[in-house]
Amino acid sequence: MSQALARLPGLGPRSARRAVLYLMKKRENALRPLLSALQTVAEKLSTCSICGNVDTSDPCSICTDPRRDEKSLCVVEEVSDLWALDRSRLFPGRYHVLGGRLSALDGVRPEDLTIDQLVRRVSAGGIDEVVLAMNATLEGQTTAHYVAERLEGFPIRLSQLAHGLPVGGELDYLDEGTLAQALRARRPIA
Amino acid sequence: MSQALARLPGLGPRSARRAVLYLMKKRENALRPLLSALQTVAEKLSTCSICGNVDTSDPCSICTDPRRDEKSLCVVEEVSDLWALDRSRLFPGRYHVLGGRLSALDGVRPEDLTIDQLVRRVSAGGIDEVVLAMNATLEGQTTAHYVAERLEGFPIRLSQLAHGLPVGGELDYLDEGTLAQALRARRPIA
């Protein structure tokens, strides 16, 4: 069990052994609830066949929510990004999870991601806005660029998350790349 | 001396005492060079009477550099922000240092900053672009808002640094405020 736990991100072999001892000691209060939670996950969670979200139903609760704008699509790399954006209901539309990012280093090619599915969703019609919400990393931006090219020619508004100073960001502590982007993309004040 | 050192930002009383002992031990190799460096600073450094930069000459080397675009002005809170922006020659124009930010909490009012001087510089003519480069903090943005109001009506292009994802920023690790701004200010892709 300790080896299985050590495979979790953020847990090393040592913390995994400590976790095992803790779970053994608190068999009733910790081990059993964890076990049943994991069983629920194993049985009930599935990947949404429309957007790639992970939820207890397929299609997921976002794809089936009638209050959400079905004409707007936000494209993210991973399910964790979808959750990050959705935590505060920032985006009123629906999502598309690519399942990763293009990476020559890791050998991730376009066909390893759900880009074809995205193009099919858009070409099926009914979508008039696509927001690319890839991470501001090199690989994220490469992916955004590629996806933008694939979506060229469709009658949609295509946009990308703004890059610049993060909230609370102080110039003296920010890297030059961020300052350069913030300056380059400066917004006119009415 | 230890008390004088402890007043420096980032040095507590204990590190100050250790620094004193170190300087006493290395009298020739550390104390004397530090002393002469501080003397140079005390004698030669001054505040630029045009922009508020700190330099060995007044007007400073930026204000007198003929290769810099004298029609473009970048407004920053502190000299450290000017240096941060200028480190990589991001901005081809000149600067204006406000000397702080408006703050009800700290009792900083518009007349405590060099806002009047800025308005005078702009109304004197010859400037056709002003970039507000305040920090993305509450007080920085309040200051930017106020400065923008004071510069209303002048025939200049007024803009503000872009806000959004910092370089390398991953959605899952960013705060909701930054995600909200990045989404709100999303850029259309041609």
UniProtKB/TrEMBL annotation, chains A, B:
Keywords: DNA damage, DNA recombination, DNA repair, Metal-binding, Zinc, Zinc-finger. InterPro entries: DNA_Rcmb_RecR, Rcmb_RecR, Rcmb_RecR_Znf, TOPRIM_dom, TOPRIM_RecR. Gene3D superfamilies: 3.40.1360.10, 6.10.250.240, RecR Domain 1. The keyword rRNA-binding does not apply. A zinc finger (C4-type) spans 48-63. PROSITE patterns: RECR (PS01300), TOPRIM (PS50880). SUPFAM superfamilies: Recombination protein RecR. Pfam families: RecR_C (PF21175), RecR_HhH (PF21176), RecR_ZnF (PF02132), Toprim_4 (PF13662). Residues 71-166 form the Toprim domain. May play a role in DNA repair. It seems to be involved in an RecBC-independent recombinational process of DNA repair. It may act with RecF and RecO. Belongs to the RecR family. This is Recombination protein RecR.
